[in-house]
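hiii, so i know i said id send this last week but things got crazy w the move. better late than never?? heres the sequnce for the chain we talked about at the cafe, plus the structure i predicted for it. fair warning i was half asleep when i ran it
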Amino acid sequence: MANTISESATTTQISARRVELSIDTGALVNVTDNSRTVDAVKIDNTANTHAVYLKIYNFDSSSPPTLGSNSPDFILPCAASSEADFMFDPASTLATGTYVAVVTAAGTGGTTGPNNAVLVKMLMT
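okay and structure toks below
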């Protein structure tokens, strides 16, 4: 599956961004260089027999984070062969931009990607 980012508007004209990423390496993915709030995240790790961790960083592309060195703003876990849903209430603002990575070890130092692709869905406004 290709990574997709789509813009949409609700009836109240709030710009929403739905992000769908299929991540199968420990590499960082630049989601946006703009200020956004994270409203919800869904992690689908059903293709793996090991736990994974979604790292979310507040950085822009002029100075991207270094996976394994920079502390993520969030580390969201997902158990082996399962899905995990996260709601942010209130939504969490990432003021400069958003990078994400999926790794197999919790904490700042984890850099190894999953054995199989992990589907990540994010709702951002």
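btw The chain has no helices and nine strands. thought thatd interest u
miss u guys!!
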